[in-house]
């Protein structure tokens, strides 16, 4: 009997660890900002689609993109609460919080009616024990990543968003502002209590300017870009690369981040150096990763490859993020990866299609248009490189990041993994309009080849048609783009085969609205459109979750949230505005400390008056204690103590227990471990 008891006790104590090995769960959500269908098609074409003999059905070397290989696909709407045409703030917030009724423009994950923070899927995951990460090519404080881990009434308040990322409590958040001379008594950055946001385990992207003080940003040496050995990195002119700061409170947030356990890197070399020190990151310690590789957005991929090689690719950031996150929690992780600058190229690459004499031209796809530096971080554009080729590299960088996720998902030891890839909105109404003509590719305006010739047979002779439009009919085989694949930093990238090669033209097709994004060079900048966007999904649990995007017709953009929530098994306290008769309003059950010895504090959040019971079950499924008989509770957070005794007053054995809250048909629970 005693041996059996000891064995049972050992089993119970071992249970949490062995359970987690089998049930590790990971969600990677990819968002291509502004990523419509055309840039994706163009990128695949640049990799060889459509060349003679290269056929999807039977060509083994046909280059499919990683996003092409996600097995489940759907279309999703993008409109916000009050606009057909959305912005990244509501566009991403709706994925983050699943708010029925959507989010108003410019809000970052706030309820549009009450202005209260809406807990995000990332925050709920973190509170449930998952590690969490944000990776992007934009400033890390930009609207899309911010929607998952910040709450603020205007997306442009990026100094505050940065501070929210690094704070696990209201106290920590306010301490950041109290640390500097720029403290603002208006406190329009205050989060209502209790703080909803959580501390992020991995933050990688651009945007150092919102972490570094405006005056003397390198006061602590954090603005100097350094390699893995701490040596300063120099640019093409031999000058040290230094990041700039613009925090108006003059706080060095990076120094505070280091105090809070963050390992800070600011170069590609230092980021990849993390792979040699992964054992520094564990569930037990406080180590987290902050990588900021540019003052504002990371450079466009095309320019990164030529001019700024000390910045990392998105796929490299994703790779390192996955490696760190999978070590930070035995439970799994939630990671958002944004290809954030596809949208910027679409904003900047504007114009329209014209007809000159005997040919169509696209005035948009010339290098001068990309000279618009609204989104450029003040850098020069590459001479002779057209907007389309910028776009193809930007999409490919995003796609390689998806490839990293797929590789992880297909690793049998990964645990259960769900991958979703979508966009917050389309931008520019982009379309693939054809090919640059070989002879006119560098001209002012671009001769466009559209569809291949259809010979006509007259009197036994084939003759090309039509006569009056030059479609390149005299060049058989001239209907395919001429790209070569070159290797750069371990990946293949398409480069034009020569300065006059036939290249794909992807250009703005509609919505010629001047919206303040520029237009100073005689063109009309593109803007967001209300087009539906694509969502792809895959998982390694027989499609049980990924398949939920299919079989339903068109998806609403509130529909992705519950799939991620159910996969992770988390509840959020403030979203899911179901019709009242369906709402239970039952939030998560939390328990502290866990494991516990003599006393456990159980908290339960509810958001409307309802009848709730709270009970404790043992590992055999037997109810041992009624903590709260079924009773009407008021909205708010209720704390109920458990003294570790059963209903007879006897102290229960060490082991695993389940605290279960019930309201109507909804049940939420929390595993707890008692150690006597
Ligand atoms: Zn945009």
Automatic annotation (TrEMBL):
Record InterPro entries: Alkaline_phosphatase, Alkaline_phosphatase_core_sf, FlgD/Vpr_Ig-like, Secre_tail
Residue ranges of every copy of the FlgD/Vpr Ig-like domain listed in the record: 599-662
CDD domains: ALP
Cofactors required: Mg(2+); Zn(2+)
Ligand binding (Zn(2+)): 33, 343, 347
E.C. number: 3.1.3.1
Signal sequence interval, chain numbering: 1-21
SMART domains recorded: alkPPc
Keyword tags: Hydrolase, Magnesium, Metal-binding, Phosphoprotein, Signal, Zinc
Coiled coil (UniProt feature): none
A molecular function GO annotation: alkaline phosphatase activity
Keyword Magnesium on entry: yes
Active site: 88 (phosphoserine intermediate)
Enzyme category, top tier: hydrolase
Annotated positions binding Mg(2+): 33, 142, 144, 338
Cofactor: binding comment: Binds 1 Mg(2+) ion. Binds 2 Zn(2+) ions.
Stored Gene3D superfamilies: 2.60.40.4070, Alkaline Phosphatase, subunit A
UniProt xrefs under PANTHER family: ALKALINE PHOSPHATASE (PTHR11596)
Family (UniProt): Belongs to the alkaline phosphatase family.
Protein's name according to its UniProt entry: Alkaline phosphatase
The species this protein was found in: Rhodothermus marinus (strain ATCC 43812 / DSM 4252 / R-10)
Lineage: Bacteria, Pseudomonadati, Rhodothermota, Rhodothermia, Rhodothermales
